[in-house]
Design goal:
Blueprint (H helix, E strand, L loop, with lengths): L15 H4 L4 E15 L5 E8 L2 E4 L2 E2 L3 E5 L2 E19 L10 E3 L6 E4 L7 E8 L6 E7 L4 E7 L10 E6 L2 E6 L10 E7 L11 E4 L2 E5 L8 E2 L3 E3 L3 E3 L3 E10 L2 E14 L5 E15 L8 E3 L3 E4 L1 H11 L2
Antiparallel strand pairs: 1-6, 2-6, 3-4, 3-23, 5-6, 7-8, 9-14, 10-13, 11-14, 12-13, 15-16, 17-24, 18-22, 19-24, 20-21, 20-23, 21-22
């Protein structure tokens, strides 16, 4: 047993808060156009990235971006509803009058967790084979920020899945794409938020102004923003279309290819797990007409899922 503070997930010997590295995700904003938000996080440096923004539309290049000035995060040029992920990185140990867990494995040591500063954690894992237009209600209230990732659970290949986020009965819900092109296949969805689930009867609890904000069954979010990956362990990816491209064949005829961001095991290529944007879920012909508009979207975020897959039953109590 390591010296110092430990807090095992119920029924296991896995101490998530000490064993996992994670991002301190300050906020997940839903944005379009331009705007800014100010934070008050002394001792942290902030970074921000846009997920899902269009980079081209037709022949036009779309320039969008984020910037950080001190504690102010700004975005501009976002032409379609997208997410901004704001991440804080500790630059010193925690200066807080109460319980603080610092990371002394690095030199100099830095802050890891305290009541006002807790990471997003796993809130729900859902296995399903989506149908066209299906609405899947999550357990996250619409008043709370959240982010979801998906991957194929087939032995090989990708799942042809993407969705839009809506609300239903006061909760966030995922509305899957329409019933066109290749069928969607067996999928696992990972939902993260700041909500607490499966609070243990006894053990470690962290309170902020009388409210539980962390406990030993929490599995913190560790994400990588703005890229795809090839991995030796399973990975999951945020949802979205990666590219719609018209490919002329003769004159005013050709075909349109629709790709989405997807994750699965590429047995016919790298023989590794991949989170990528090359999953073609539909291809349709056009004839004697101007090519349909094309567009492409910015890179997604992905997670490695092996820890979540191993411990989600105990962490979520399901």
């Amino acid at each position: 047993m390591p010296a110092g503070f430990t807090a095992y997930i119920d029924g296991t010997t896995y101490d998530a808060i000490n064993s996992m590295s994670f991002n301190f995700v300050v906020d997940i904003l839903t944005v379009s156009g331009a705007g800014s938000k100010t934070y008050s996080l002394p001792g942290f440096s902030l970074t921000a990235a846009i997920l899902g923004g269009r980079t081209t539309y037709g022949s036009s290049q779309i320039t969008f971006g984020t910037s950080v000035s001190g504690q102010v995060v700004s975005w501009s040029g976002v032409d379609t509803v997208s997410k901004v992920v704001v991440v804080a990185t500790a630059t010193t140990t925690g200066n807080y009058a109460g319980f603080v867990l610092n990371d002394y494995s690095v030199n100099p040591p830095v802050f890891k967790i305290a009541p006002p500063f807790t990471p997003f954690s796993l809130a729900q894992v859902i296995d399903l084979t989506p149908t066209g237009g299906q609405i899947l209600q999550t357990n996250v209230p619409a008043s709370m920020p959240f982010i979801a990732f998906h991957r194929s659970t087939l032995a090989s290949g990708f799942n042809n899945v993407w969705w839009t986020e809506i609300t239903q009965n006061g909760y966030w819900a995922l509305q899957f794409r329409g019933n066109f092109g290749s069928a969607m296949s067996a999928t696992r969805i990972y939902v993260f938020s700041k909500m607490m689930v499966n609070t243990p009867a006894a053990g470690f609890f962290m309170y902020d102004n009388g409210q539980i904000v962390w406990h030993q069954n929490c599995l913190p979010l560790k994400l990588t923003v703005g890229s795809t990956t090839t991995s030796d362990v399973p990975v999951a990816i945020t949802s979205g279309v990666s590219v719609v491209v018209a490919i002329p064949v003769t004159g005013n005829s050709g075909y349109v290819r629709y790709n989405c961001y997807s994750a699965g095991f590429n047995i016919s290529g790298t023989s590794k797990y991949e989170a990528q944007g090359g999953n073609t879920y539909n291809q349709v012909s056009y004839d004697n007409q101007q090519a349909p508009y094309q567009y492409s979207c910015s890179p997604p975020a992905y997670i490695e899922t092996n820890i979540y897959d191993t411990y989600y039953h105990q962490a979520l109590g399901v």
